[in-house]
Amino acid sequence: MSVSKAISLFLTVCALFTFGSSASAKDEWTDEALALANDIQDSVFIVGEADWDKYEQELESLAPEVRIYRSQELAFSYLQAFLFPRYYSLKAQYDPLLKSQGSHDQKARQEILDTFSVIGQSNDYTAVAKNIRTFIQGKDLNPETIIWGHVTAALAEINYGSAPLALRDLQAAQLLTSKTALSQYMQREIYGVSAYVLMEAGDFQGAILNYKKRYDISMPRGFPVDSASSISNMANMLEDASYYKKASKLNSILMSRLHDGVFPMHRLFVTMGCGNLHSKLGNFDTALACFEKAEMYFDANSQNWMLWKVSVVNTLARAQRFDEARTAILELQSDPRFQESAEAQDKIVLAQAILDINKGNTSKAIKELVNFFDKQQIKSLDERREMSREYQALINSETQNLKQNAKLKDDLLMRQTLLTGMAVCVCLALGIFLSVLSRRRKKERILSITDPLTGLNNRRGFDEELCSLHLSAAKHNTKIAIGLVDLDRFKAVNDIYGHAVGDAVLVLAAKRLRQCLGSQALLGRLGGDEFAFVMTDVTSLNDLRTTGQNICEALAQEERFGETVISPYASVGIAVCDASEITVADLYDRADFALYSNKKNNNEVLNIFDDAHSAEFLRRKALESALANAKPDEFDINYQPIVEIQTGKTLGFEALARWNSPTIGEVSPGEFIALAERMARITPLTRHFLVNALETAKTWPDHLNLSFNLSSHDLATLDLTAELKAIVLDSGFPPERIVMEVTETAMVTDTSLVRDALQLLIETGVRIALDDFGTGYSSLLHLHEFTFDRIKVDRSLTKDLDLSAKKRSIVSLLINLSKNLGVDCVVEGVENERQVALLRAMQADLAQGFLFGEPLSKEEVYKRIADEHKALQADKLAINAR
Q: In terms of pLDDT, which residue wins out, 471 or 4?
């Protein structure tokens, strides 16, 4: 095989990994990039210290609200440029003003900025994006702040490498943008970030379009926008597509705009970028001149010095200045920092291989390269393409060098034969390595998006594929459907039979779902006992209904696990819409609403979102909006008496939340409490209600207790519970007069965590009551696992107590059980004298219900207390008169 054929074979291998479309398609967008660059190059300036300092000084003369807003804009620019010291310095300047006069949204934007700034210490982009996304969900924020959050999350996601998730955040931001009047700054940010994300996702045409839109928007006078960023990113796109000359042309524009006031880091990046491009183009003298200039811009004690030296070494090796390259390598390897920089060690491998080949030690070079490949866990596509181009240059330059310097025909033939063998070996080694890398990367990718128990997509994998399917369906104007599947009574399976059986049920459910949906359908386990599936090209609701019914029937079939027979019944909620008319988030919401409607109505059947649901769904959306923007004075507390059933004496009151929305009217607690839990707003509401209830209870006589309901979310973390503990201790109200009521739903997630959370409260002296007792799947088990001071018999058992012998037996049993356990028993829902007579006969102690008093306002409680006191005094006088 000739050298030229070896090179041809090698290029064929490299071509398999070339990124992008056909040359003509590349030419189309690259010409657009150059045309746009030519339009804006005259206005390009690179921002430096003086520009930022001047603008920061101008901010001080603005009105407080405007100053905060514009300062946060500038702070965001610093973060995007990774100028963290300037960010923290600027924040220190406006932070006191923000705390004293900043609006709710300005403070929220600051939390988003602070969350993003964590990247400066940890580089944990995916955690940053998740935290930002969690923060903006369900918050009382204006649309621009939510857009700000989505844009920031998209930046974090794309830096982590997750293009689908970044595009999802962009889609959410763009949808809000179409409905919101935004400032020019935010419009530019939307287009700029969109361009950057699309560029990293490989959609260069879309990136160029967004850069055009960004450039078309003028900015407020004096705002130091770095117009060079667009050209710099276009140069990066061209370089990624191997258009080195065009990329070099754009970078030359940037080089011409460098001035002494520019940040050294920016000058370093621009100059090093030009040097590396010239090196790849074979302009070695120009490249070395750029590197020499770049040396002035970095701190010799930083890692940048190492990477600069590596670029110099690689360029010297490419230029066949081997003695200088060897000297530079020795100097580099003698530096202690070299041993600490894995990146520098990786980048020097190629130069060392070139030198080894030049000395005739081809086998050593190949061995070093293979060893280098083996220790790499994952390499990006760009890095692999770069490696391919390096070896192509290596073979070409060595072949040319042999032809020019050969003196004897035999010697030339021998060395050509050697090079041919080397080329074949390198090509084969590289091909094998790339194949191994591809398999390894694919395996690690699969692990990151796969649920280890069921083998289905996990939430991340499901969401990424769903975003892609949704974009495709929207592009082709077709319908898309998402279904949510929730296993009923799964918590009871775990509690009664153990987690091993619970896991087996989940695996069985996944298997049956796959059988119903087929091997090609998108199916995932979102977490716990919740599954989801997607159907595209939906043409008939009947097909959806048939699929849903098949799922319900399949999951309801009995299965034996050892000596246990279980039927994993499920509820299914499905939503279907034109993909172009709805976002992924809204599609999720509709499917969740359909599923929730099943649960609320206790139907273990399929529910497809349709027009009949729209009114209630729109009401829920209106409630969500109203709750997100609710003010504290919209909420109030009523108090329902708890009485001693034998005497009718009031022993305490249960605090009941009330909400009177100015836009919707009175909303029932059952409706808005559940909504607040789904929107993650229940915790601040709990704090608000507890503080006010304790403040009111402080005015009551000493014999009256306060009962207060806790949500499962209040016990979700020990930090949240610790906040409640602090409120109790700071209130001045005796903790022993407080009864915290928890339902069984609060204990269905993490038994150990809930036990620890309740213990925190018990340490203060408060008592714990198990509410709605007798309606859950594991009531007796919870009595065994937790320490309770009181149980409350649910009103469903009290209803028709005088008409049902079975209910009378159950209630009597529960009353006796409480006495045997040594705890109080409150019977709820008492509404007539017949029930009272029966409960007295059963020796019940405490009761609660409309017969003894409806929920009362704070003023009505004072009147009841006063009336009872007068009645007591009258009874004493009557007794004394006898």
A: 471
**Predicted TM-score (pTM) of this structure:** 0.49
Give the sheet arrangement for strand 570-578, strand by strand: 522-527, 530-536, 479-487, 570-578, 606-608
* Span 346-367, average pLDDT: 66
DSSP readout, 204-227?
HHHHHHHHHHHHHS---TT----T
Would you say residue 410 has pLDDT above 50?
no
Residue that wins the pLDDT comparison between 134 and 709: 709
Q: Are 479 and 579 in contact (CB under 8 A)?
A: yes
Which residue has tokens 């969900």? 137
Q: How far is CA 101 from the centre of its chain?
A: 30
Nearest C-alpha neighbor of 515 from the set 533, 502, 540, 489? 533
Distance CA 196, CA 158 (A): 9
Tokens describing residue 284: 């070695």
Angle at Cα 445 formed by Cα 527 and Cα 437, nearest 5°? Answer: 165
CA distance 767 to 737: 8
Cβ 116 vs Cβ 155: under 8 Å: yes
pLDDT at 749: 58
Q: What is the pLDDT of residues 517-565, one digit of tens each?
A: 887 789 999 888 899 999 888 888 888 889 889 998 898 888 888 777 8
Count of beta carbons in the 10 Å neighbourhood of residue 870: 10
Residue 37 reports pLDDT greater than 60: yes
The per-residue pLDDT for 405 is 47
| Contact partners, residue 240, CB within 8 Å, separation at least 6 | 19, 20, 382
CA distance 233 to 210: 12
b/e map 101-123, b = 16+ CB within 10 Å:
ebeebbebbbbbbebbbebeeee
Q: Residue 523's pLDDT is what?
A: 93
Query: Confidence band (pLDDT; 50, 70, 90) for 359?
Result: low
Identity at 287, one-letter amino acid code: A
- Which helix or strand (DSSP H or E) is residue 768 part of? strand 767-773
Asked if 814 and 796 count as a contact pair (C-beta separation under 8 A), the reply is no
Of 626-640, 682-696, 727-741, 772-786, the range with the lowest mean pLDDT is 772-786
Q: Cβ(294)–Cβ(278) under 8 Å?
A: no
Instruction: Please compute the mean of the pLDDT values over residues 155-179 and round it to a whole number.
Output: 74
Tens of pLDDT along 270-291?
777 777 777 777 788 888 888 7
| Pair of tokens at residue 392 | 């192509």
Residues near 25 by beta carbon (within 8 Å), at least 6 away in sequence: none
Using DSSP, state whether 522 is helix, strand or coil.
Answer: strand
Per-residue confidence (pLDDT) for residue 23, from 0 to 100 = 36
Q: How many residues does the chain have?
A: 882
CB environment 251-282: b (16+ within 10 A), e (fewer): bebbbeebeeebbebbbbbbbbbbbbbbbbee
Q: Could you tell me the CA-to-CA distances from 634 to 32, 637, 665 in Å, in that order? A: 56, 10, 10
CA 330 to chain centre: 46
Alpha helices in 732-857 (DSSP H): 751-762, 779-785, 795-798, 805-821, 833-841
* Residues 752, 755, 757, 759, CA torsion sign: negative
Instruction: Supply the DSSP string of 693-753, one letter for each residue.
Output: HHHHHTTS-TT-EEEEEE-GGGGSSHHHHHHHHHHHHHH-S-GGGEEEEE-GGGGSS-HHH
Whether 477 and 577 have beta carbons less than 8 Å apart is answered as: no
Q: What is the DSSP string of 242-272?
A: T-HHHHHHHHHHHHHT--TTB-HHHHHHHHH
pLDDT above 70: residue 726: yes
Paired with 534 in beta bridges are 482, 522
What is the average pLDDT across 424-432?
A: 57
pLDDT at 776: 58
Nearest CA to 714 out of 730, 725, 702 is that of 725
